[in-house]
Amino acid sequence: MMINSAEVLFYILGLMTLIAGVGVVAMQNPIYSALCLVMTMIGISGLFFTLEAYFVAGVQLIVYAGAVTVLFVMVVMLFDLRKEVSSALGGGINTAAKAVGVGIILGLILSAISLSKLGTSTMPLKGLGASSIKEVAVQLFTKYIFGFEIISVLLLLVVVGAVGLARSRGGTHA
Amino acid sequence: MGRDTFEITVNVVKMLVVFLMMVQMVPILVWLERRGSAFIQHRFGPNRVGPLGLTQLLADAVKFICKEEFLPQKAVALLYYGAPVVALVPAALALASIPFSTPVEVSPFEMLGQAWGPYTFYIQGFHMNVGIIYILGVSSLGAYSLLMAGWGSSNKYSLMGALRASAQMISYELALGLAIVAVVLLYGTFDLAEMVSAQKGPLTFHMFSREYVVSVLPNWGIFFQPLGFVLFFTSVFAESNRLPFDLAESEGELVAGFHTEYGGFKMLLFFMGEYGHMMVSSSLLAIFYFGGHHIPFLTEASVHDWALSLAGQETTVASIITSLVFLASFLVKVALFLWFFIWVRWTLPRFRYDHLMDLGWKTMLPWSIFNIILTAVILFLAQGLVL
């Protein structure tokens, strides 16, 4: 059977993303979890590339791999979390909670897959150069404007919360 | 990669050449940096080994390879060894998508009893329609190498240096990205090669539906984006962790920052990453603001005609000569910016950390947002501004 290079790339990237994704959950040390998360982000970005959604792939890399996860890694590195994490992960109730959590998420994923139409033909994000980026912007600012704007409110809320927490405990040096 | 064996071979060779060029530039830049620092600060640089101390670098390279291989007792081996390799990756990937010169047109020819061609080879590792986004994406991964090095060495100085460096990179990436947004608005494309070709000819702009041509100036981005240039130029210094923003390795406070525990070849890999970052930044400066490979008052067609007369009407040879001429022009611009990096490093003192953050968040970020708004308004007023 002939498989073309795009398929090979897809399987390699998919495998990388999945292994790294499992690593995020399975790693005992939070640093390795965070670094696995970076690998997952890079893998997802590569998958967008294979789908020819170059702009989304690049933005995925810039925003998630390049900025958000860097902050995760920085914060995790600042604190020595090993004891806290191992104490939080043990115990019978925890194991039961883990099993229930995995079940719920698996159910959600399976139902999402079975409910969604696979192989949709309209992909506004696909394409080369500036025209596809314009298309993304048009979609974002017309069809999805409510979600887009509400997310900014959510982010504002998070910022206010973070500042409030930091100040109530006597600053970041407490 | 290509349609047939010849094209694939050339493309693979091209990628290797781009990577080797980055690696080979490092010793030259190190020599330039040491001689330059000596020249600027009234000292002696390497001047004993070989003419002008040039072979000192060869000796250094041998020293780097022969140094003792050393792993700190408490270090995490995977991260400690991985970090220098990761440091090299972003710069190498980003440099591969920089358009260096005009494409080479190869007319059909015969080789090994077979007909080949015609081909068009871009003088670029690979051609990308979203070049800028790709470069920003891969170079934003640079922070991980510092964090891995800092944490993996299990040294407080290393960790502090790494945290400072990555915080600084994230902060200045915002101003950098917004300066690039203004550039994208101006040229209306994400393709670096298209940006370069938009800057040919004399300075031309449209204002209130009339066209103005200033024939004494080239049509370069710097005349449309002076503020953007200043912002971009300042940010790339911070991005590549060089003085006056090299808080990551301020010797007085942090021994050597994230690479305190590194020596020998691993240290050299960090250097290669830093110089690679400088090369990418200089290339981007040339492409965004200084016309890429274009030479003022010369067009591609006129150089091609001259090359044709030189090569005796051989179009392939003429195309190669044209490409080489413009490659030289591009490399001169890049070399000037690289020298500027070195010049600034040995001239300005280091910022204090809070001053650095204030500059990034309270000065650069507002100004770059202002720059975007200004560019957008002017472009809107001058509708039909065709660069």
In total, the number of strands of chain B is 6
Query: What is the terminal separation of chain B in angstroms?
Result: 32 Å
* Mean pLDDT over the residues of chain A: 78
What fraction of the residues of chain B are assigned to beta strands by DSSP? 5-15%
Structural class of chain B: mainly alpha
Shape verdict of chain A: globular
Largest interface, C-beta within 8 A: A-B, 26 and 28 residues
Low-confidence stretches of chain A are none
Assign a percent range to the helix content of chain B.
55-70%
Q: If you average the pLDDT of chain B, what whole number results?
A: 81
Could you tell me how far the N terminus lies from the C terminus of chain A, measured between alpha carbons in angstroms? 63 Å
Brief characterization of the structure:
With 174 residues, chain A is mainly alpha-helical. Chain A contains seven helices and no strands. In chain A, helix 1 runs antiparallel to helix 2 and helix 2 (30-50) packs antiparallel against helix 3 (54-78).
Give structural notes.
The complex is a heterodimer of chains A (174) and B (387). Chain A has 174 residues and is mainly α. Helix content of chain A is 79%, strand content 0%. Chain A is built from seven helices and no strands. Chain A has helices at 5-26, 30-50, 54-78, 82-89, 92-115, 129-142, 145-168. The longest helix of chain A has 25 residues, at 54-78. The model of chain A has no long low-confidence stretch (mean pLDDT 78). With 387 residues, chain B is mainly alpha-helical. Chain B has one domain (61-382). Helix content of chain B is 62%, strand content 7%. Chain B has 13 helices and six strands. Chain B has a two-stranded antiparallel ribbon. In chain B, strands 2-3 form a two-stranded antiparallel ribbon. Chain B has a two-stranded antiparallel ribbon with strand order 5-6. In chain B, α1 runs parallel beside α12 (315-345). Classes of the chains: A mainly alpha (174), B mainly alpha (387).
